[in-house]
Amino acid sequence: MTEMLKKTAPVNTFCRMCDNHCAITVYRDGSGRISSIDAYPDHPWNHGRVCAKAGGAVDIVNHPDRLLRPLKRTGSSWQEIDLKQALDEIAERVSRLQDTFGPESMSVWKGEATSFNQQEDLAKRFCRALGTPNFLSVDSLCFCTREIGYSLVYGSWPKPDFSNAECMILWGANPPAAHPPMTRTIMEGRERGAKLIVIDPRLSTIARQADIHVQPKPGTDGALAWGLAHQLIANNWYNKDFVENYTVGFEKVAAYAGDFTPDAVEAQTGVPADTVRTIAALMHKASPRVSQYAGNGVEHYENGVNNVRAIASLDAICGAFDMKGGSINADGLGQQSLKLYDEIPLTQLRRADGEKFPVLHDFRQECNTMTALNAILTGDPYSLRGMIMTAGNPTMTNPNSEKVKEALSALDLFVVRDLFMTETAQLADYVLPAATFLERTELYTYAPIQTVSMSTRVQSIPGVQDEYQFWHDMAHRLDFGEHFPWADEADLNAWLLKGTDVDFHDLQNSAKGIQYKAIQRQKWRHRPLSTPSGKVEFASAYLAGLGYDEVARYKPPYYASNPKPEYPFSLITGARNHLGYHSSYRGVKRFQPEVSGPQMEMHPDDADGLGVVDGETVKVSSAIGSIDIPVKIVARQEIIRSVLQATHGWKEANINKLTHDDILDPIDGFPVQKGIAVKVERIR
Amino acid sequence: MQIVTVNPRKCVACRHCESVCSFQRRGHYNHHDSAIRVNHYPEQAACIPLTCVHCAEAWCQEVCPAAAISRDAKTNAVLIDATRCIGCKMCMLACPFGAINFDSSAQSCFKCDLCNGDPQCVKVCFPGALNFEREEDAARANRARHDNRMAAQFGNRNHD
Questions:
Q1: pTM of the shown model
Q2: Chain B within 8 Å of A304 (Cβ-Cβ)?
């Protein structure tokens, strides 16, 4: 009776349908099956609200297509095998590969379908213990450019304090679809009278409430940021005390910004010169309560890191860094590190990306995936032969999908753990079932409120391992079990919290999470930043030492600097919708009536020019590849002319067949997945 | 009574409310099955959420020839009993807000039922455009907002 009650009682935990981890309550039916999900009313992150995706987790967990047994490829078909046999065989083949071709012939790839931080650290730990420097992940094309760009300036990525701001600027970000809880803080800011400026070639969801919606040409954000810097500096609107005492390289920035007059910015970005002046004046009036957030939209360009650095620098120019209503330079929890960076530095081994991106490695100790995939195909700098991938689907998310497929198919050993038989898993030698977020417990920190929470394992499925158990079992088979000594995830969580001010049992009993440290502002007054100089770095001697530009020099995107008449359109990819997360959830049937499938957004005048009607399937091609995709003609305010948008993740029309793995940001190797030069043809 | 109040100044037409309403009512996500409807007008830059306000004097209830519309004793919500509804659409015509919808497969009308006192649309509204509150409280919030603006405009010290 007690057991049954336990199995059916509601459980408070955290949603992981996206990386916002809202507090939820999970309900189960009489048989213990997860039946519905509701918002938990009293957590300081989501305040009793939860987005519409959360309820869909029920369908993910109970999905009839979910992988529940290990599968082994036998010729062109799959054979169900026992978990122990699968792990034994994989370990044996990993050992054999490493004995024959060296430790670096193996790699580990972490995707985001099951989680992010803690799962990434575990995968990094396993990778180090396995003795290979080839840690690959989806971060090579998502998130890292922003983290690196901000960290180059501030030594960290500060978070926006919209609730207290007077001027809010969003660059290529659409919080209602991607960060629902951030939307609440933006509306709180507006309620207080703050101005909202949204910079996006599309009229995104959040842009509908913008006071100023700016529509630059794709990839020209850096020029706009420099133009704002120029206005703030030329008009003496910058914070002199902050700039003089807490930054380096201001004179270099001031000199470089001089080129970005409002007219020059207009010529580059298409944003009217007067709008540049207006925004700068609003920033000045609001300083230091100027709060910015740069989204995924700014990073998929060959000048992404420098564009982000230019945006980041504006906070310091306005004196908004770590100020109320500006940015929050949050303190971390200070948990133990899983990554083995110091214990096993592996500096003697070369990475499969040929050390082309030292900055990516310095900040993330990651091997660039675009370049590593080339190594599989070319053997240069050496042959990467084996890969264990957890919850990634790069044939849908990496650029140049056809090549990704070819590379992954060429591996001697390819193991994929996932919830479903994805397009990528279909290429594997072994496919192992992974646990959903409701079948795991992990820590999650909410940086802007300096709060930590721990999720609760709601159910377990026999034979379906959580992330830790898998790495643990592999490590013990490969004779480095000493690096995975914890009995289970709970034991691991307790270890992670050692040395912090948060007690494991207190956290286990706290559905509201625990604030690990009170928020303090202006920490720069008494504590050096984590930059090399300890100050805000407008100019980076570190980058200069590696042969890069010291200031965040602007370069126009390739489609603008090398215009080709045969490719007259510029295609942006990856706009979020409210029921998706990256390439996930396209298979959730209950979502489908609302998410209509692949489509490419087009300006009505462009549609007229081509003679295309709404819903018509067209052929869109870049220098990389081409696909057929239905057109959605949007309102003329919703996208600028000559720009198209298509969201990725649809196998029926995979837009990443067109994106570039051959044009990369020289600083961190990010690929060009936005601002693709394309042509559109009618299919007759 | 508490109703779902709507604030177009905060709505971004993100559609989470329509999705969750249809999920609550029909078990899938399809805005055609949602009792709350949001319209986005790009030309006017306007987002208008619209749902039943459960009028004190409910014209839909008065006009219904099948006596299918009643008031819930617990929540005070105006409810349509789909098993009694004859699909004549009189209530749709009577409602001055257009807050009643027609389900063509079931041949009956449907509207917001306040989810038995726990409206799901409010829970998914991160922008805060939807709130489940008493009308008096909504009015008080409007007054506070206006007060704040006046204070900002006429205050002698604008920054803390």
A1: 0.96
A2: no
